Amino acid sequence: MILSGRAGIDLSVGAVVSLSGIVFGFAYGVWGWPLFLAILLAVLVGAACGAVNGVLIAYIDFPPIIATLASFYALKSIAILVSNQSPINTQPIQDFYSAAQSVEIPLIGRFLPLVPLGLLTFLVPVAVLVWALLNRTTFGRVLYAAGTNDEAARWAALPNRLYRALSYALSGGISALAGVFVVAQFASARPDAGVSGNGMALPAITIAVLGGVAITGGIGRVAGVLLATLVVVWLNAGILLLVPGNAGSQMQLLALGVLLLGRRCSTPR
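The chain above was modelled as a monomer; its predicted structure follows.
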């Protein structure tokens, strides 16, 4: 969304993670759906939530921060209401914890530390998909063009509105996949999974900016975002090892703030 311009910040991603996790919890843990269908339902719900944001922003001209903030409140409330403020931790959901375990990489794994299974089943496939969309399709070229100069792209008869709306739907679908992975991590579908504490929206925006994505749109690469993700994860883990407890959590926020300021100071004006 940020690439598409118009300060396309999505504040609703944490709420989408929560709601899609609850939907997955009901489908897989309560209704007994097959795993693939339960994940598909969660992704469709997430994409639908993102599409609503996209329509509000691209076709009704709501400012992104207003539209997605409204969606954040609405989806957060829906997740709490449909779950009756209680997590879903039936036996199938608890057994789903195995999807978040650490495994050995095939062939070369004996020479490397164990890696989280989600890295192979979620992060890498999503990164490859997004990279392909942005660099090998018309969808990506239009997003870059709209983010660079929306007016010029419109005069060039590019489908700015449609592709901007689709970018929000894609964000919702990816957030839903993250929601499914969070369910595996906690062995429980929690209605506050994506909104508790500082939520997921601000860390996601922070990582995007650290990865070189211009907040005004039109500039950014998947590789930069992945590198920024690794830096933030390692930094947070290192701080918690040095400063355990709540003090460590606060130090993490301080470190992120310093990183953002450093990134801004190092950017040519």
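The beta strands are 102-103, 115-116.
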